[in-house]
Amino acid sequence: MTATPPVQPPAPSSTAQSEALFERAKRVTPGGVNSPVRAFRSVGGVPRFMASAEGAYLTDADGNAYIDHIGSWGPMILGHNHPAIRDAIVAAAAHGTSFGAPGWREVDLAELVCQITGVQKVRFVNSGTEATMSALRLARGFTGRKYTLKFRGNYHGHADALLVEAGSGLMTNAAELGAAAPSSAGVPDEYARLTLVAEYNDASALDALMAERGHEIAAVIFEPVVGNAGVLLPSAEFLAALDRVKGNGALLIADEVMTGFRLSASGATGRLGLTPDLSCWGKIIGGGLPVGAYGGRAEIMDYVSPEGPVYQAGTLSGNPLAMSAGLATLQALQADPGLYDRLDTYTARLAEGLQQAADSVGVTVWINHIGSMLTVFFQAGPVSNYTEAARSDTAAFAVWFQGLLKRGVYWAPSQYESIFISAAHGETELKVTLQAARAAFAEVVQAAK
Ligand SMILES: *Cc1c(COP(=O)(O)O)cnc(C)c1O
Fold first, then answer.
1. 326 within 8 A of 286, measured Cβ to Cβ
2. 134 Cβ closer than 6 Å to some ligand 1 atom
3. Which of 113, 171, 372, 427 has the smallest number of CB atoms closer than 10 Å to its CB?
4. 227 Cα to the center of ligand 1, angstroms
5. What is the domain-level CATH number for residue 341?
6. Which residue in 57, 66, 147, 155 is the catalytic one?
7. Boundary residue ending a domain (335, 353, 386)
8. Å from CA of 128 to ligand 1 middle
9. Domain shared by 119 and 159, yes or no
10. Cβ(132) to ligand 1 under 6 A?
C-alpha cells in the first residue's frame, strides 16, 4: 500500500461535510443516494460520504477514517486501492477508454474465468443485475419454458422477474413500505406470476414444487450461500435437492455475484461441490469497476446472440478499463492461493471475538459466517432462512451499528447484509473492531433499559 493507514482510527468527530453533501444530494437524487441501502434508512443518522479508500480503510469527506467491513459490498477482496489494480486501470486508460469493438483484454479475462471456474463460455455485461437477467432470458430461450423458481429473501439484482420476495435493501425497507412481502412497485403482477418462490433450505418444498411444476420451469436461480438476507448457509439436503433440479430439464442458475471468487477460486458452488448449468458473476470479477458476467456449457451459451436466438447486448460490455481491473484482480487472487485460508481464519476469529463480546455483556446474538462473509443476527437463532432472519431485533442492531460507527468501525448499515473481509484486514483491525464491538454491545444493553 502506498499510503499508511492510521493504526487506530480516530473516533469520528465532525460530520458537517457529509451532512452538507447529503442535503445537496437529496435535492437532486431520490433519497440522496444511488443505491438504497447506502442511505442508512434502517439504522438512522447521516450516511457518510466517502472521499478516499486505502487498504482496509475508508476516509469520509470530513477526514474521519473507518475500518471498512463492506469492501464496496464485495468487490474489494484485495483491499481498497490495490496497487496492481490501480496500475492496470491507469495503463489501460492510456490506450483509450472504450472502443465499441472487441479487444484483447476481454479475451484474456474470458479465458481466465473459464480456466478458474470450469465454464466453457462466458459473456461479459456491466452489473450483477444484467448477468442474472440475461442468464434467466437464456434459460427461457434454451428450454422454451416460461417459469422461474427463486428462494425467499435471495436477491438477484433488480430485474422485474427477480424482484419477487427479494432480500437485502428490500427486506430493510419492507416495514417502511408497509408491504407484506418485500417487492417493488412497478413490477406487474403478470410478470411476478411467472416467478415461483420457495423457502431457502427447504429441500422437501423444493422437491415438491419441482415434482408438480418442474416441466414448466425454465430455471431455478439461487444464492449458493446467501448474503442478501444476512449470511445463510445451505444445508447438505438442500444442496442435494438443488442438484436434483437438473433432472427435470430446468436449468440450475447459481447466482455467484457475491460469492464468486470470494468463497473460493471457484466460488461457493466450487467450495460446496455443486455443479450448476449457468453461473452469474459480478462484484469481484470487475475489481471495483462495473462488470458482470454469465457463463456455462457451450451448448447453452451458444444460444446467445449473435451465435443463437437469445438477444443480449451492451454498449460498454467488455470495456477495457473494467476488463483490466477484473484481470488484475483475478491474477492477484491466483498468485496468492493461501489467501482464502487466511480470510477464513480472520473471519472465524472475528466471529468468535464478537460472540464473546456479546456474551460478556449479555446481548443475545447468532452469528453465521463462512469464508470472508459474516452476519451478526440480533436474536437467539438458529438462522437458516429468510423467515428466521426476519425475527432479528433491528432496533438493537441499529444501536450497535451506531456504536461501531462512532468508534471508527464501518459495518453494513442493515441487519440483513453480510460484511466482507479483505486481504488488507490484519491484527490491528481485528483488535480495534472487537474493542469497538464490545463497547457497542454495552450500549445495546443500556438502550434496552
Ligand atoms: C449484488 C448482487 C446482485 C446484483 O448485482 P449489481 O451489480 O448490484 O446489479 C445480484 N445477485 C447477488 C447475489 C448479489 O449479491
1. yes
2. no
3. 427
4. 10
5. 3.90.1150.10
6. 155
7. 335
8. 4
9. yes
10. yes
Catalytic residue (choose from 60, 68, 255, 393)? 255
Collapse the DSSP code of 115 into the 3-class scheme (helix H, G, I; strand E, B; otherwise coil) and give the result: helix
In a domain? residue 115: yes
Same domain, 255 and 392: no
Answer yes or no: pTM beyond 0.70.
Answer: yes
Answer whether 223 contacts ligand 1 (Cβ < 6 A): yes
Ligand 1 close to Cβ of residue 143 (< 6 A): no
For residue 64, how many C-alpha atoms fall within 13 Å in the half-sphere facing its CB? Answer: 22
Residue type, 390: A
β-pair partners for 187: none
Note down the domain range covering 385.
16-68+337-448
Give the chain's domain count. Answer: 2
Annotated active-site residue 155? The verdict is yes
Is position 277 annotated as part of the catalytic site? Answer: no
- State whether 171 and 157 are in the same domain: yes
- Give the containing element (helix H, strand E) for 53: strand 50-54
> Which amino acid is it at 375?
T
CB 168 within 8 A of CB 229: yes
Give yes or no: residues 304 and 403 share one domain.
no
Which atom from ligand 1 is nearest to the alpha carbon of 35? 8
Name the domain boundary from 335, 364, 381.
335
Quick one: pLDDT at residue 5? 57
- CA angle (42, 43, 48) in 5-degree steps: 110
355 in the same domain as 217: no
Of 283, 346, 406, 410, which residue is the catalytic one?
A: 283
User: Are 182 and 54 in the same domain?
Assistant: no
Probe residue for ligand 1, chosen from 133, 228, 294 as the CB with the greatest number of ligand atoms within 8 Å: 228
Question: Which atom of ligand 1 is closest in space to residue 73's alpha carbon?
Answer: 1
Nearest to 53 by CA among 38, 35, 39, 69: 69
pLDDT per position in the chain (449 positions), as tens?
445 555 566 667 899 999 999 999 999 999 999 999 999 999 999 999 999 999 999 999 999 999 999 999 999 999 999 999 999 999 999 999 999 999 999 999 999 999 999 999 999 999 999 999 999 999 999 999 999 999 999 999 999 889 888 765 555 444 333 233 446 899 888 888 899 999 999 999 999 999 999 999 999 999 999 999 999 999 999 999 999 999 989 999 999 999 999 999 999 999 999 999 999 999 999 999 999 999 999 999 999 999 999 999 999 999 999 999 999 999 999 999 999 999 999 999 999 999 999 999 999 999 999 999 999 999 999 999 999 999 999 999 999 999 999 999 999 999 999 999 999 999 999 999 999 999 999 999 999 98
How many angstroms is it from 349 CA to the middle of ligand 1?
Answer: 27
Distance 258 CA to ligand 1 centre (A): 7
Domain assignment present for residue 172? The answer is yes
Catalytic residue check, 255: yes
Angle at 395 between CA 394 and CA 396, to 5 degrees: 90
CB 376 within 8 A of CB 434: no
440 and 344 in one domain? yes
Residues 329 and 359 in one domain: no
Atom nearest to 227 CA in ligand 1 = 15
